[in-house]
Amino acid sequence: MLPEDQKLLRLLSQDCRLNPEELSIQTGLSVEYISAKIKQWEKEKIIAKYGLLVNWQKLEEDRVTAFIDIKVTSQRGHGYDKIAQRFQKFPEIKSVFLMSGDHDLCLVIEGRNMYEIAEFVSEKLSPLEVIENTSTRFILKRYKEDGVEFEGKEERPQRLMMTP
Predict the structure, then answer these.
(1) Mind listing the pLDDT tens digit for each residue in 94-112?
(2) Which residue segments constitute the domains of the chain, with CATH numbers given?
(3) Could you point out which of 60, 118, 148, 164 has its C-alpha 20 to 30 Å from the C-alpha of 46?
(4) Which of the two residues, 3 and 160, has the higher pLDDT score?
(5) CB atoms within 10 A of CB 72
(6) Hey, what's the torsion of the CAs at 135, 141, 147, 149, to 10 degrees?
(7) pLDDT tens, residue by residue, 111-132
(8) Distance CA 38, CA 20 (A)
(9) Main-chain phi, psi angles of 33, to 5 degrees
């Protein structure tokens, strides 16, 4: 990938609201080139989704996110791909990752509460014949996500000491 294309993608990933005219000013590339590149990247799934990051904690919404680490029995000739594709079909599962370490896959699941996630694990996930074991961890508080800080102390300006 060309360095100017990398810069363009980096800018879009930081703020996908930038239009081709604004991107042209920042990159020096033509509006036509940028528009064509964005269309091409969308078609090739290089740009997979445009998104919005909401700090649900501020709204006090009932929402729980869990990471479910799974040890699976891989299927001969398919490895983990076929199993991961099966997990992708569940609307409750937001992300599926192949992992290194003690577990093979990590699923990210969102629900209204811990009981809803527990029900999903016990009724839909655990009965699958490829599952050897699961380990569920819940997010208790988000401090930073996708490079955005949600929590942090605002630093007060230091007072300068006055001397006569």
Answers:
(1) 999 999 999 999 999 998 8
(2) 3-43 (1.10.10), 57-140 (3.30.70.920)
(3) 148
(4) 3
(5) 19
(6) -170
(7) 889 999 999 999 999 888 999 9
(8) 9
(9) -60, -45
Q: What is the pLDDT of residue 154?
A: 57
Which pair of structure tokens corresponds to residue 17? 């609201």
Q: What is the rounded average pLDDT of the residues 56-62?
A: 72
Contact criterion met (CB below 8 Å) for 67 and 96:
no
The residue with tokens 């604004």 is: 22
What DSSP assignment string belongs to the chain? --HHHHHHHHHHHH-TT--HHHHHHHH---HHHHHHHHHHHHHTTSS--------HHHHT---EEEEEEEEE-PBTTTBTHHHHHHHHT-TTEEEEEE-SSS-SEEEEEEESSHHHHHHHIIIIITTSTTEEEEEEEE----SEETTEE---PPPPPPPPPP--
Phi, psi dihedral angles at 41 (to 5 degrees): -65, -35
Neighbours of 74 (CB within 10 A): 13
Query: If we measure between CA atoms, which residue out of 10, 3, 7, 1 comes closest to residue 27?
Result: 7
Q: How far is CA 8 from the centre of its chain?
A: 20
Residue 109 neighbours by CB distance under 10 Å: 21
- Cβ proximity of 128 and 135 under 8 Å: no
